[in-house]
Design a protein that fits this description.
This protein is mostly beta strands and about 130 residues long. It contains no helices and twelve strands.
Length: about 130
Amino acid sequence: MPRPKAMMKRGKHVVRSKRYKVRIKKDDQVKVIAGRDKDKTGRVLEVDRVRGTVLVEGVSMIKRHTRPNPGKQIKGGIAEKESHIAISNVMVLTSGGQASRVGYKVEGTGAAAHRVRIAKKTGEVLEKRA
């Protein structure tokens, strides 16, 4: 079966020419809603818009076996680190700890108007513009 034109093979990974629309940002508090780490919460460390994944602190931990390399001051052994999970498997938490979808609202008028993210469930503004 031929591969869609939007996908190109590069090494191990499939690279998509289209980016995902992402409503989750770095440093958001999120709750995992599906998968083996369901109901865990954590802070978003990284968002990958091309692959549609997020890296959440303390979630989806994997073990990595590393060989010692004294030249680079790397100790050998088994290291645990987070792995990426699909962005559809997380929801943003409000300040009250309630999971919610993300919406947008325009604040201000005229030249001072700007778009802010809001929690759909409570209507709370998720970030303040500095």
